Amino acid sequence: MTAFLTSLRDLLARLSEADTEGSYPDDWTRLLKTLIGGTRADASTLMVMDQGVLRPVAVLGLPDDVRGRPFRLEEHPRLAAIAAHPGVCRFPPDSELPDPFDGLLDEDLSQVHDCLGVALRDGDRLIGLLTLDALAVNGLADLDEDELLAAARLLGTCLRVAEQLSTTRLRLSEALEDEQRSTPLQHWHSPAMARLTNALTLVAPTDMSVLLHGETGVGKEAVARALHARSHRHRGPLVQVNCAALPEQLIESELFGHRRGAFSGAASDRRGHFAMADGGTLMLDEIGELPLALQPKLLRALQEGEIQPLGSERPQRIDVRIIAVTNRDLAAEVEAGRFREDLYHRLSAFPLAVPPLRERPEDMLLLAGHFLEDNRIRLGVANLRLDAQAMAALTSWQWPGNVRELEHTLARAALRALGELGPVGPQARHQAILRLSLRHLALPDTPTSATPVLAEASAKPTAVAISDAVALPLREATDDFQRRHIQAHLEANAGNWAATARALGIDPGNLHRLARRLGLKG
Question: Which of these, 82, 87, 32, lies nearest to 61 by C-alpha position?
Answer without folding.
Answer: 32
